[in-house]
Amino acid sequence: MDEELRQPICKGFIEEPTVAGGAREPVVLNFLLGLISIFATATFYFLPIFFVLHGFIIKFTKEDPFFFLVLRNHLTYKDYYDA
């Protein structure tokens, strides 16, 4: 009865899926803003900014996979809570 009865669980069930190394919503938003800025200005001046932002998105996602979800909830409900 002392046997280990646990089975390994696929990481897909317990981890948030990522796109290009980062959380899905910020990566897609960053990509779309980059495309819009390129087409609107017809230059590539803003491209390094979006690469740096993508690096920050990846860094924050690696530290905490739910960082952007928690940040969005905080910004949504900050008027209701004092802390």
Automatic annotation (TrEMBL):
Keywords: Membrane, Transmembrane, Transmembrane helix. InterPro entries: T4SS_VirB3/TrbD/AvhB. It is found in: Membrane. It holds the Pfam family VirB3. One of its GO terms (cellular component) is membrane. The chain crosses the membrane at residues 31-53. The keyword Transmembrane applies. This is Type IV secretory pathway, VirB3-like protein. It comes from Fusobacterium gonidiaformans 3-1-5R.
